[in-house]
Every structure is written in C-alpha cells, then in structure tokens.
UniProtKB/TrEMBL annotation, chain A:
Keywords: Membrane, Transmembrane, Transmembrane helix. This is CbtB-domain containing protein. The lineage of its organism: Bacteria, Bacillati, Actinomycetota, Actinomycetes, Kitasatosporales. It holds the Pfam family CbtB. The chain crosses the membrane at residues 24-43. It comes from the Bacteria.
UniProtKB/TrEMBL annotation, chain B:
This is CbtA family protein. Keywords: Membrane, Transmembrane, Transmembrane helix. The chain crosses the membrane at residues 62-86, 98-117, 137-157, 169-188, 208-229. InterPro entries: CbtA_put.
Length: 73, 247
C-alpha cells in the first residue's frame, strides 16, 4: 500500500456528485430497453414465447441459457 | 457530469460486461459442460424421441455457449452501468470503484442469486416442457420482485442512516430485505420438477456450476468496470512528479 507519493492524500472520500437524472434518463430508456431485448433473445426466445419461428435461436444459445439459469425447456 | 459521461460509462459497462463474460465462458465450458453432458446422456437414455439436432452438441457447447455468454455479458454490463450511473453519489460516500463493486454485487444478488434460490437453474432433461411458460413467468417475476425489494431496502437504509448510523441502518435494511424475500418465496409456487431417477449429484453440480458462472461474470464485471469508471470520473492527475517543461 505504498501509495503515499501522490499529492495530498484526502483523508475522507469526497462525495461524488450524482449524475443528473435528466442526463441519465434518455440513455436509461433507450439502452435499457435494448439490453432487455438482448437478454430476452439469450434467455427466453423460442422457449416460453417466440418472436421468430423455428428453434434456431433456442438451440444455438441452448447451453448458455441453461448455465445462466434461465428456464430452457 | 452530463450526458456524455453517461454515454462513456454505458459504453465502458458494456465493454466490461463483454470482457467479464470471457472468464465466465471459460468457467462455463470447463466446469459447466460436464453436468450438461451428463444430463443430456440421462435424457437420451430415458426418453422419448429426440428429434433431429438442429445444432450439434459440439457447436452448442462452444460457439453457441460463447454467443449466449458474450451477449448476456454485454446486456447485463449495460444495465449495470446504467444502475451505476444512478447509484453514483446517491447511495453513500463511496468512490467510483467502490460504487461499481457494490453495483456488481447487488446485481449478482438481486438479478441472479436470490431468484435462483427459489427457481434454481435446471440442466437439460429437468423441467416439463408443458410448464415452461409458467416457470419462465415465475422466474422473471422473482427477478423483478427481488430487484424491487432490493431497491426498497436500499431506500430504507438511506432514510434510517442519518438517525441510526450507517451500520445499524444497513443491517436493518438487510434484515428487512431478507424477511420480505422469504415471505415472497414461501408464497410463490414451487418450480421443482425433477424426473424420477435423475442423479442428484449431477443436479447439484450443474446448479453449483451455474452459480459459479454468474459469480465469475459479476466479480469480473465489478473489478473491470470499477477500473474503467474511475478513469472517467476521477482522472488521475497527470504526473505528480516534477512538471515536465513543455518544449
């Protein structure tokens, strides 16, 4: 832990300013939804519900779906 | 501290998720595939028609596994980065790195470990296809419940902290969370559906491997994202030695 060569070591952690919600909201909405869509395709597509027909997606991600804990079949 | 910061953190979160998925993938391949193969052997020995294989086992256990793991890593990395952006400076006096570690820990607990205690991961051959819809709905319901209760407990802890102190407030919030989750688990229907004769040791090894995969993923994410986020939020002062004269 020889870190003391750096300039004035603050003794207490300065509180970080929160990111304004206005800046966060658009990213959270668009990317939040996009990420959930990705999760859906890895975790549930062609299992309980299907957007695409067939079994290709289910079979391709089969092992990951099982090991990540999603109900697969 | 604006939209560009959020964008940078989001991109770095997805990147950290992708990178963390690599060791998780190795863990899944070397530790998880054994129990999966054992379960498939049980299935073919005991069963009904198996249909033609659309994707061969060797592809499923390599390229298929990798695709699923890496996409999952990117997706949860992005979600965790957004949660981090919200949590930063709002959950207590934590550094960027500590906030990232706490976010990863919370995500592991709330999005995986707590739901999986009620609806554990099942290998192939375990689970009746007729109940898949119900089991999927219950699994996602359990995730949503666990995340919401986690958020509620955090808010409770933050409210109590000024009066009770951080330690007592955190312990109380943790106990409240545990109690609420226990009640939810007692009342939700069971998901167990294990075929007769399925080896208990295979089931145990599979479930343990599944927990391991997620633990590796989230530990990797917390460490990597903490490193990447700190460099965005508190850039290191350039060279703390003698200032270099500019030519």
């Amino acid at each position: 832990m020889a870190q003391s060569t750096a300039a004035p070591a603050p003794t207490t952690q300065p509180a970080l300013a929160p990111l304004p919600l206005k800046a966060l909201a658009p990213w959270a909405v668009f990317f939040g939804v996009l990420m959930l869509v990705l999760l859906y395709f890895v975790g549930a597509e062609q299992g309980a519900t299907s957007v695409l027909s067939g079994e290709g997606v289910h079979e391709w991600v089969h092992d990951a779906r099982h090991l990540l804990g999603f109900p697969c079949h | 501290m604006n939209s560009a910061t959020v964008r940078t953190l989001l991109v770095r979160g997805m990147l950290a998720g992708l990178l963390a998925a690599v060791p998780a993938l190795l863990f899944a391949y070397f530790v998880g595939e054994g129990p999966v193969d054992a379960a498939i052997a049980f299935e073919s020995a005991n069963s009904h028609e198996h249909g033609e294989d659309l994707v061969s086992r060797s592809v499923q256990s390599t390229a298929g596994l990798a695709t699923g793991m890496l996409i999952f890593g990117v997706a949860v990395g992005g979600i965790a980065a957004l949660a981090f952006c919200f949590a930063l400076g709002r959950v207590g006096r934590f550094s960027a790195r500590a906030t990232a570690a706490l976010t990863a820990l919370a995500a592991f607990l709330l999005m995986y470990l707590v739901p999986t205690l009620k609806y554990p991961a099942n290998p192939p051959a375990v689970g009746n296809p007729d109940t898949l819809g119900q089991r999927t709905a219950l699994f996602f319901l359990m995730i949503v419940l666990s995340v919401l209760l986690g958020i509620a407990a955090t808010m409770l802890g933050r409210r109590l902290a000024p009066r009770w102190g951080n330690w007592n407030a955190s312990v109380t919030a943790g106990l409240a969370f545990a109690a609420a989750v226990t009640v939810a688990m007692v009342f939700l229907p069971s998901g167990a559906n294990i075929p007769k004769g399925f080896p208990a040791s295979d089931l145990w090894e599979f479930r343990l491997a599944s927990i391991g995969v997620q633990a590796v993923l989230w530990a990797g994410f917390g460490l990597l994202f903490g490193f990447l986020a700190e460099r965005v939020l508190s850039p290191r002062p350039v060279a703390h030695r003698v200032p270099v004269p500019v030519a």
